[in-house]
What we know:
Layout: H1 5-23, H2 34-51, E1 55-56, E2 62-64, H3 72-87, H4 93-103, H5 106-118, H6 123-130, H7 134-146, E3 151-155, E4 163-167, H8 169-178
Helix pairs in contact: 1-3, 2-3, 2-4, 2-8, 5-6, 5-7, 6-7
Amino acid sequence: HSGQEVKMRxxxxxxxxxxxxxxxxxxxxxxxxxxxxxxIEHLANVTSVLRSGIARDARREVKYVPEGELGTRMxxxxxxxxQALFIMDIYNYExxxxxxxxxxxxxxxxxxxxxxxxxxxxxxxxxxxxxxxxELINYAGEDLWYLSxxxxxxxxxxxxxxxxxxxxxxxxxxxxxxQL
Length: 180
Protein backbone atom coordinates (compact mmCIF):
# COMPACT_ATOMS: atom_id res chain seq x y z
CA HIS A 1 0.00 0.00 0.00
CA SER A 2 3.04 2.20 -0.11
CA GLY A 3 2.50 5.22 -2.30
CA GLN A 4 -1.28 4.92 -1.96
CA GLU A 5 -1.57 6.83 1.31
CA VAL A 6 -3.28 9.91 -0.17
CA LYS A 7 -5.87 7.77 -1.98
CA MET A 8 -6.47 5.65 1.14
CA ARG A 9 -6.88 8.75 3.33
CA UNK A 10 -9.39 10.15 0.86
CA UNK A 11 -11.37 6.86 0.84
CA UNK A 12 -11.41 6.68 4.64
CA UNK A 13 -12.44 10.34 4.91
CA UNK A 14 -15.26 9.79 2.42
CA UNK A 15 -16.53 6.72 4.30
CA UNK A 16 -16.44 8.59 7.58
CA UNK A 17 -18.18 11.64 6.07
CA UNK A 18 -20.99 9.44 4.74
CA UNK A 19 -21.25 7.66 8.09
CA UNK A 20 -21.39 10.92 10.02
CA UNK A 21 -24.06 12.27 7.69
CA UNK A 22 -26.12 9.16 8.25
CA UNK A 23 -25.43 9.06 12.00
CA UNK A 24 -26.73 12.58 12.45
CA UNK A 25 -30.27 11.23 11.94
CA UNK A 26 -29.87 8.16 14.18
CA UNK A 27 -30.72 8.05 17.84
CA UNK A 28 -28.23 5.25 18.54
CA UNK A 29 -25.64 3.34 16.51
CA UNK A 30 -26.45 -0.16 15.22
CA UNK A 31 -25.78 -3.12 17.49
CA UNK A 32 -22.92 -5.42 16.62
CA UNK A 33 -23.28 -9.18 17.17
CA UNK A 34 -21.47 -10.47 20.23
CA UNK A 35 -19.30 -12.82 18.13
CA UNK A 36 -18.27 -9.96 15.84
CA UNK A 37 -17.54 -7.69 18.80
CA UNK A 38 -15.41 -10.44 20.36
CA UNK A 39 -13.44 -10.91 17.15
CA ILE A 40 -12.91 -7.14 16.89
CA GLU A 41 -11.73 -7.08 20.52
CA HIS A 42 -9.11 -9.75 19.79
CA LEU A 43 -8.05 -7.89 16.63
CA ALA A 44 -7.64 -4.69 18.65
CA ASN A 45 -5.59 -6.48 21.33
CA VAL A 46 -3.22 -8.04 18.78
CA THR A 47 -2.90 -4.85 16.74
CA SER A 48 -2.27 -2.68 19.79
CA VAL A 49 0.53 -4.86 21.07
CA LEU A 50 2.17 -5.20 17.66
CA ARG A 51 2.11 -1.40 17.26
CA SER A 52 3.58 -0.67 20.71
CA GLY A 53 6.89 1.15 20.50
CA ILE A 54 10.17 0.22 22.16
CA ALA A 55 12.47 3.21 22.75
CA ARG A 56 15.99 2.70 21.39
CA ASP A 57 19.02 4.98 21.37
CA ALA A 58 21.25 5.87 18.41
CA ARG A 59 23.12 2.56 18.78
CA ARG A 60 19.76 0.74 18.67
CA GLU A 61 20.10 -0.30 22.32
CA VAL A 62 16.83 -0.54 24.23
CA LYS A 63 16.38 2.51 26.46
CA TYR A 64 12.93 1.92 27.82
CA VAL A 65 10.38 -0.88 27.70
CA PRO A 66 6.82 0.38 28.09
CA GLU A 67 3.81 -1.70 28.99
CA GLY A 68 2.18 -3.07 25.85
CA GLU A 69 -0.60 -0.80 24.63
CA LEU A 70 -4.07 -1.95 25.66
CA GLY A 71 -6.55 -2.69 22.92
CA THR A 72 -9.47 -0.88 24.55
CA ARG A 73 -9.13 2.40 22.67
CA MET A 74 -8.48 0.66 19.38
CA UNK A 75 -11.41 -1.73 19.90
CA UNK A 76 -13.74 1.24 20.31
CA UNK A 77 -12.45 2.75 17.07
CA UNK A 78 -12.75 -0.54 15.16
CA UNK A 79 -16.32 -0.98 16.45
CA UNK A 80 -17.25 2.57 15.41
CA UNK A 81 -15.81 1.99 11.98
CA UNK A 82 -17.61 -1.35 11.75
CA GLN A 83 -20.88 0.32 12.69
CA ALA A 84 -20.34 2.99 10.04
CA LEU A 85 -19.66 0.35 7.40
CA PHE A 86 -22.70 -1.62 8.54
CA ILE A 87 -24.93 1.44 8.20
CA MET A 88 -23.76 1.86 4.62
CA ASP A 89 -24.37 -1.86 3.92
CA ILE A 90 -20.71 -2.46 3.14
CA TYR A 91 -19.54 -4.01 6.43
CA ASN A 92 -16.86 -6.58 5.87
CA TYR A 93 -14.42 -7.72 8.56
CA GLU A 94 -11.72 -7.74 5.88
CA UNK A 95 -11.78 -3.92 5.87
CA UNK A 96 -10.93 -3.86 9.58
CA UNK A 97 -8.17 -6.43 9.01
CA UNK A 98 -6.68 -4.30 6.25
CA UNK A 99 -6.63 -1.22 8.46
CA UNK A 100 -5.08 -3.20 11.31
CA UNK A 101 -2.40 -4.72 9.07
CA UNK A 102 -1.55 -1.33 7.57
CA UNK A 103 -0.79 0.09 11.03
CA UNK A 104 1.60 -2.67 12.12
CA UNK A 105 5.33 -2.44 11.28
CA UNK A 106 5.98 -4.81 8.38
CA UNK A 107 8.79 -6.72 10.07
CA UNK A 108 6.73 -7.38 13.20
CA UNK A 109 3.84 -8.62 11.13
CA UNK A 110 6.19 -10.90 9.15
CA UNK A 111 7.67 -12.20 12.42
CA UNK A 112 4.29 -13.06 13.92
CA UNK A 113 2.90 -14.51 10.68
CA UNK A 114 5.90 -16.84 10.40
CA UNK A 115 5.54 -18.06 13.97
CA UNK A 116 1.76 -18.50 13.62
CA UNK A 117 2.29 -20.63 10.52
CA UNK A 118 5.38 -22.61 11.59
CA UNK A 119 5.09 -22.72 15.37
CA UNK A 120 8.66 -21.60 16.01
CA UNK A 121 11.68 -20.18 14.23
CA UNK A 122 15.03 -18.46 14.41
CA UNK A 123 15.84 -14.97 13.17
CA UNK A 124 17.53 -16.43 10.07
CA UNK A 125 14.54 -18.63 9.21
CA UNK A 126 12.08 -15.77 9.64
CA UNK A 127 14.28 -13.35 7.67
CA UNK A 128 14.66 -15.77 4.76
CA UNK A 129 10.99 -16.70 4.63
CA UNK A 130 9.74 -13.12 4.90
CA UNK A 131 12.42 -11.63 2.65
CA UNK A 132 12.96 -8.94 5.28
CA UNK A 133 16.48 -7.82 6.29
CA UNK A 134 17.90 -9.95 9.09
CA GLU A 135 18.68 -6.89 11.21
CA LEU A 136 15.06 -5.66 11.07
CA ILE A 137 13.75 -9.13 11.93
CA ASN A 138 16.22 -9.32 14.83
CA TYR A 139 14.95 -6.00 16.24
CA ALA A 140 11.36 -7.11 15.69
CA GLY A 141 12.07 -10.30 17.66
CA GLU A 142 13.66 -8.35 20.49
CA ASP A 143 10.80 -5.85 20.55
CA LEU A 144 8.17 -8.58 20.60
CA TRP A 145 10.03 -10.40 23.35
CA TYR A 146 10.17 -7.22 25.44
CA LEU A 147 6.44 -6.78 24.88
CA SER A 148 5.92 -9.81 27.08
CA UNK A 149 3.04 -11.95 26.11
CA UNK A 150 3.92 -11.96 22.42
CA UNK A 151 6.89 -14.27 21.98
CA UNK A 152 8.99 -16.57 24.07
CA UNK A 153 12.57 -17.34 23.21
CA UNK A 154 15.02 -19.98 24.25
CA UNK A 155 18.60 -20.70 23.36
CA UNK A 156 19.08 -23.67 21.11
CA UNK A 157 21.25 -26.50 22.45
CA UNK A 158 24.02 -24.49 24.11
CA UNK A 159 24.74 -20.95 25.33
CA UNK A 160 25.63 -18.57 22.52
CA UNK A 161 23.56 -20.40 19.92
CA UNK A 162 20.69 -18.57 18.18
CA UNK A 163 17.40 -18.00 19.92
CA UNK A 164 14.33 -19.87 18.82
CA UNK A 165 11.10 -17.92 19.09
CA UNK A 166 7.48 -18.96 19.42
CA UNK A 167 4.23 -17.16 20.16
CA UNK A 168 2.90 -17.28 23.71
CA UNK A 169 -0.29 -19.30 24.08
CA UNK A 170 -2.38 -16.24 24.96
CA UNK A 171 -1.14 -14.22 21.99
CA UNK A 172 -1.55 -17.21 19.65
CA UNK A 173 -5.17 -17.54 20.76
CA UNK A 174 -5.89 -13.82 20.20
CA UNK A 175 -4.17 -13.95 16.81
CA UNK A 176 -6.17 -17.01 15.75
CA UNK A 177 -9.52 -15.49 16.75
CA UNK A 178 -8.65 -12.14 15.12
CA GLN A 179 -7.66 -13.96 11.90
CA LEU A 180 -4.98 -11.34 11.32
